[in-house]
Amino acid sequence: MKYLKKYRIPFSGLALGSHDFEFDIDRAFFDCYEYSIVKDGNLRVQVNLLKQENMMVLQFHITGTVSLQCDVCLADFPAKTDIQERVIVKFTDEDLSENTDEIIVLSKHEHELDIAGLLYEFINVSVPHYSKCSEQGDNITCDPEALAKLDGLATNQNQEEETSKQTDPRWEALKHIKYN
């Protein structure tokens, strides 16, 4: 987890106003999260931090490509992504459990903000539920060999269903029993 330390923004020494930060995300970032949907990518993160007296507004712009696995042919392919998100950080000495999707509450004694978890969430939530080479990929089509094999398996399954539809003579004999 030492790798994720570079995704922290030290805000305590910053003057009021707008500040820009840039981060790069690659395979090493996703390796830090064991159950990540995305396993590899090449992303550039631009963060605009607007520091005010009692709060900060962070604008995230994440661009680049992530490696996805096609749900049809199981091939890995690069998919372009462009994510824009906003997070508000409030400072308080009171209850810190007010966190929501868009608002993070920090103690007034905090001096840096760890954005690694936010970046991980933004990227994984942007992944489509159904990944397909021809839809999310850039001029990519599904693997023809895998599609041919799937068609062959579907044909075999249809033939098995037809043979199983032929009824067993024992069941036919039971159908002739009438209820008294």
Spell out the blueprint of helices and strands.
Blueprint: E1 8-10, E2 17-25, H1 27-31, E3 41-51, E4 55-69, E5 76-92, E6 103-107, E7 112-114, H2 116-126, H3 133-136, H4 144-165, H5 169-175
Parallel strand pairs: 5-6
Antiparallel strand pairs: 1-7, 2-3, 3-4, 4-5
How many beta-strand runs?
7
**Tally of alpha and pi helices:** 5
How much strand content do the residues show? 35-45%
Helix content: 25-40%
Characterize the biggest β-sheet. 5 strands, mixed
Topology as H/E string? EEHEEEEEHHHH
Number of domains: 2
> What is the spatial order of strands in the main beta sheet?
2-3-4-5-6
Averaging pLDDT over every residue, what do you get? 84
In whole angstroms, how far apart are the ends? 74 Å
Assign an overall shape. Answer: elongated
Runs in which pLDDT lies below 50 for 5 or more consecutive residues are: none
Estimated radius of gyration: 27 Å
* Class by alpha and beta content: alpha+beta
Summary of the model, kept short:
With 180 residues, this protein is of the alpha+beta class.
Word description of this protein:
This protein has helices spanning 27-31, 116-126, 133-136, 144-165, 169-175; strands at residues 8-10, 17-25, 41-51, 55-69, 76-92, 103-107, 112-114. The chain is α+β, with helices and mostly antiparallel strands and 180 residues long. The chain folds into 2 domains: 2-136, no CATH class; 144-175. It has a 5-stranded mixed beta sheet with strand order 2-3-4-5-6. Strands 1-7 form a two-stranded antiparallel ribbon. The termini are far apart.
